[in-house]
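Escalated from tier 1: flavin-adenine dinucleotide holo job.
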Amino acid sequence: MIEPNYDVVVVGSGAGGAMAAYTLTRAGKKVLMLEAGRDYDPVKETPMFNTAREAPLLGRGTPDKPFGFFDATVDGGWEVPGEPYTTGKDSEFRWWRARMLGGRTNHWGRYSLRFSEHDFKGYSRDGFGADWPFEYAELAPWYDRTEALVGVCGTNTGLDDMPDSAPGVLQPPPKPRVPELLVAAAARKLGIPSAPMHRAILTRPIDNRAACFYATSCKRGCSIGAAFQTTTSLLPMARATGNLETITDAMVRSVDVDDQGTVTAVTYIDKKSGNSVSLPARAVVLAASACESARVLLNSKSSQFPDGLANSSGQVGRNIMDSTGAGLSAYIPALRGRPVYNEDGHTANHLFIPWWGHEAQANGELDFARGYHFEMGTGFRDPGTWSPPSLDGYGPDMKRQAKQDYGARVGLALRGEMVPNENSYMEIDENVQDKWGIPVVKFHWKWSEQELNQVAHGLRTAKDILTTMGASIPSLPSPEEAIRKGGEVIHEVGSTRMGASPEDSVTNQYGQTWDCNNLFVMDGGVFASNPHKNCTLTIMTLAMRNASWLAGQLDKGAI
Ligand SMILES: Cc1cc2nc3c(=O)[nH]c(=O)nc-3n(C[C@H](O)[C@H](O)[C@H](O)COP(=O)(O)OP(=O)(O)OC[C@H]3O[C@@H](n4cnc5c(N)ncnc54)[C@H](O)[C@@H]3O)c2cc1C
Ligand code: SF4
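Tier 2 regenerated the structure:
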């Protein structure tokens, strides 16, 4: 096999892969990136200013564009043509994938909250799941560097659920909207705090990325680079070093080893020709997203690793966690008929409700171990084609009602921590292959009492907040009815978890697999737990820290 003329092969160009490539190329390493999706340029392709009237069906979601016509996702969504996955008996799991340069960062919500020491040591506290193999203090400076590079707006609050960033790291947040202030006031009466949401949105320019000027929804992507996506930031910055080469339409099938079990090559399908290509590799970083990376490992069988690569612990594919999701919304009488003005802001919530229950949990007052937060859905928004079910009648009367109710609905979306359980995992379905001939993933899923009790608490709390605001909510759904399906919150992590021992984890604290020292995982697969805070900031922070460590190991000749 020919000698590689690059130091590291990185698989995937989303949050983890692009941060790994950025960090390695800046450290002088030559990187070859393999991306299964097509090339994508948000500067040319983002429909920043198009209105719903310009879209088919006024922009409504369709099977191939489930989040609406203008959503940035290319060749993906809940289904990827020709790339199925299966689910086990009695399991429901939904898997959102994007097949494009930049992956899901082109349209993610950009909510970017740090994990805390409390989050990293859940097992030591309550005996559920696993601890992370390091302390928060170890990661804090890397969070600072990531937040400054990516551009995160928000404020330090001093709340125990929200560790502070170093001074000057966060950009100023946009001011709260009127309905958000009303939610905050109602929550305060109940002893519940609220705070500016931290989002990877620039409110001040950085280099050639402009500040947000409140255009259309960030899910479309952001051609001015204000909303963080790797295609307008990390990837061009890595390319500018002269050390990054990218091959798109390259669907990695396996990572290959020699007789000693050392990684020597990556095999991918060139989607344009259909040919299988084997490339030599000195070191490999898998960052294809948590379940895709686990799939590559499980499909990389050899005589040394008959159960899949890096799987001597048997933990590859186990411990998958999503965030819990549930929501409650209501019309608020005080907001009805208020004068209409533009309160778009950066389109997502400017305030949110962080978890306030650590003390109650420590005192044994709650029947679930881990916390949640509420994201607020408020404000005058692009009305789109949706009409509220409360509308009655027709003609001028109906228009009056619609105007009266416009901007008066307030929603609270719960996002909570899931405890890993033995019924929630993925494996390879040996009976089904995708159109490239690669065996697909089979998901198994079950929420436990932990999540159902947490959602029940969240629904009661949301009701308390909304009724304190004057809403009328006659009844609540059961938690079983209210909880979103596994995978639907799109925070699936944990499938190649890191730990302190090769017995019960797949990688060490640097994402280096215990079984192969030149194979790393740098996506959410390495999460040892899945705190309620949206996962991507921590994926990027770990990728930055761990790629720096990898660069150091290459410098020392240890790899
Ligand atoms: C609508 C939406 C809203 C979200 N909102 C938030 C939020 O507010 N906050 C938050 O923290 N997270 C959010 N997320 C989740 C966030 O997008 C993901 O956590 C993040 O993108 C994961 O990064 P990643 O690098 O692991 O994977 P991805 O971003 O999915 O990138 C993986 C890349 O690898 C490529 N790939 C996959 N398989 C292969 C293969 N075999 N060979 C080569 N390449 C491959 C894919 O094509 C893709 O480009 C949201 C996601 C969605 C869809
Ligand atoms: S709201 Fe701001 S950050 Fe989001 S896409 Fe529009 S300009 Fe970009």
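The domain at 1-53+80-86+97-145+225-323+422-440+493-559 is CATH 3.50.50.60 (FAD/NAD(P)-binding domain).
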